[in-house]
Amino acid sequence: MSTDGIPGPVVSIVEDGRVPDSAVPLGGRRGPVSLAHAAARFRPDARALVQRWQTAEGCWGDQRLQIVLQAVALMRDRKAVDDLLTLLRGEPAPSTRALVLAALGAFDHLGPVPARVYADVEDRLTAESEDTTVRSAAAQCLGQFGSPAAIGPLLNATESPDPALRGGAITALGDLASSADLGPDDLRTVVEALAGMLAVETDEGLALDLVGALGRLARKGQPDALAALREVNDRNRAVLRAARYFLPPAEKP
To answer: What span, in angstroms and rounded, lies between the C-alpha atoms of 61 and 239?
Structure first.
């Protein structure tokens, strides 16, 4: 039975936090992520799904909307883009705005991202009054979009005094540099920036983020990324071990 494009079992999953035993072999109460997977399996209408629960009384920021947004991200249905942008602009809970950005980032493989979507996401990254969690999610969303236009805003974000935002921007630059849409000059800019940061970074967590980003690029055949990892020889044990992980077998101690 379906209501406005939403199968009955999906309503139960979102409203009750429970997958009906008769619907799919995932019975019992589960966390939002597995519930979202169960809901996505029914391929409900993504727009109807967002519209129904974004207007439900008391729904803002609670587990129901979390399930809905994760299901939309899994389905990667672009018909929901405008509704997601409405949520992004009007939702007061930072945790929900971050989930909206994650859902938008999941559309990266469906072709060029509409300009209005890119602009809204970049605005979230650059707004200094925005919550750090949201800005970090916006950075990672831009990285998934794969547009060279994101290089400047992301590099600016790596200069933030907030480690969480810097880490999100570093990860996003790694994603961006892995994109097929980047030309050789843009790719060189990103790799050189990441390598320069790694050479002077003293925060262990951020150094590990940088090693991870450069390691992915080294495995894609970027010699400058590999060279930067070879230079990691005076760090704490965790950073050194992470850098060595990405070296060719013949170079590992």
So the answer is: 36
